[in-house]
Amino acid sequence: MRKKLLSICLLLLIAISARAQTEFTVDNFKYTVTDDVNHYVSVSQNSENAPTGAITIPSSVTYETVTYTVTSIANSGFGDNSAITGVTLPNTLTSIGDYAFWNCSSLASFSIPGSVTTIGSQVFDYCSIPTFTFEASNTAVTCNAEIPCTDHLFLYRDVDRDGALTDGNVKSLTIGANVTTIYNVPTEPGEATVPNLTTIDLSNTKVTSIGQYAFNDCSKLTTISLPNTLQTINDGAFFYCSSLASFSVPGSVTTIGSAVFDFCSIPTFTFEASNTAVTCNAVIPCTDHLFLYRDVDKEGYQLTTGAIKALTIGANVTTIYTNMFNGCTLLSSINFSEATGLTSIGDYAFINCGNYVPTEPGEATVPNLTTIDLSNTKVT
User: Where are the alpha helices (H) located in the chain, listed in sequence order?
Assistant: First the structure.
């Protein structure tokens, strides 16, 4: 019996000793050993002496002669601490746990180091952070939390988020050179994603794809600049961006999805020059002037709405496809003077442009035209 009791006591002592080695406190922080071999720890606040103001989480901590590397923020690690105004994270950090900063309502800014690869769920619930930054890295971060940014979001790396990345309060967005993809936003058409945005500049990025409904219902967006690395604009990407003043499709784009510009009204629209045709499944809601500087394959349907007034055809255009401008009753000007590569005008390409119906290739189909010049083209 005595031997059995001694064994039980010994086991309890071992368990207590193991726990003592697993958790320890230094100043305002509590550390939990997550890897005994590599000496990794997670960090959280010391509940008995919680940190306040702007805090800096160290990259390493020494306890009982052993130096540990801080690699993670524990679940609920700093949650419900409204006295924290700022957080500086170390570049050794790889993960931020669930609810890590929930209800840290006084945070003025937050920056995610490039070393972080995983952000847990509801990390920033009940926060309102004016400036939020994802620092540059060639490794995408998987983000399961919504970012409650109110003023400026700096996106300097790919962020894979299964849902809208930020709430509707962000006012401006900066995209960095390491970003390759603007991910899909699985919302219904008409649901706002970032409704207060007015300008987006992606021109210096390496973005190759804009996801479905990525900028859905950004009704205040007037200007967007796209990079020459862009290849795909997915369905509904600019759905209900009703204030766009102009839009230019880079020559690198090969595919435009459906409903991309639904409920938009864009005065000036340009397909930039390229030797590669773009497959366009969207109707272009151009009202004033459409600049067509490359082949656009609309698969036999109208390329643009009937509101277009003027059309310029560029040298890289070889084909005007069937039904392309069918029903453009307001079209009063077509400039073929630059169309030196044009070889074919498809059936019914300009039918119902006013009351005149074409009977022979090359005949005027827009009743308000006074002159048509195809002499520089290669129309056959």
Answer: 2-22
Measured distance CA(56)–CA(304) in Å, rounded: 55
Q: 54 Cβ partners below 8 Å, 6+ apart?
A: 84, 85, 86, 87, 88
Angle at 198 between CA 192 and CA 204, to 5 degrees: 110
CB 339 within 8 A of CB 317: yes
Q: Looking at this protein, which amino acid is placed at residue 173?
A: L
Distance in angstroms (rounded) separating the CA atoms of residues 3 and 180: 66
Nearest to 32 by CA among 90, 89, 97, 82: 97
In the block, tokens 């524990």 appear at 74
Contact 226, 251 (CB under 8 A): no
Q: What span, in angstroms and rounded, lies between the C-alpha atoms of 303 and 296?
A: 8
Q: Which pLDDT tens digits describe the chain residue by residue (380 residues)?
A: 544 444 445 444 444 444 445 999 999 999 999 999 999 999 999 989 999 999 999 999 999 999 999 999 999 999 999 999 999 999 999 999 999 999 999 999 999 999 999 999 999 999 999 999 999 999 999 999 999 998 889 999 999 987 788 877 887 888 888 888 777 543 443 344 566 777 787 887 888 889 888 888 888 889 898 999 999 999 999 999 999 999 999 999 999 999 999 999 999 999 999 999 999 999 999 999 999 999 999 876 799 988 999 999 999 999 999 999 998 989 988 998 888 899 888 888 888 885 334 434 344 344 444 455 566 665 55
| Distance, CA of 39 to chain centre | 37
- In the numeric block, the tokens 């939390």 are attached to 145
As a whole number of angstroms, the distance between CA 351 and CA 202 comes to 38
Closest Cα to residue 54, out of 98, 100, 104? 104
CB 323 within 8 A of CB 348: yes
How far, CA to CA in Å, does 354 sit from each of 14, 75, 85, 287, 305? 91, 66, 64, 16, 14
CA 312 – CA 304 distance, rounded (Å):
13
| Whole-prediction pTM | 0.64
Region label for 284, one of left (φ > 0), alpha (ψ between -120 and 50) or beta (otherwise): beta
Nearest 5°: the CA angle 245, 250, 253 is: 120
> Residue 40: how many CB atoms within 10 A of its CB?
18
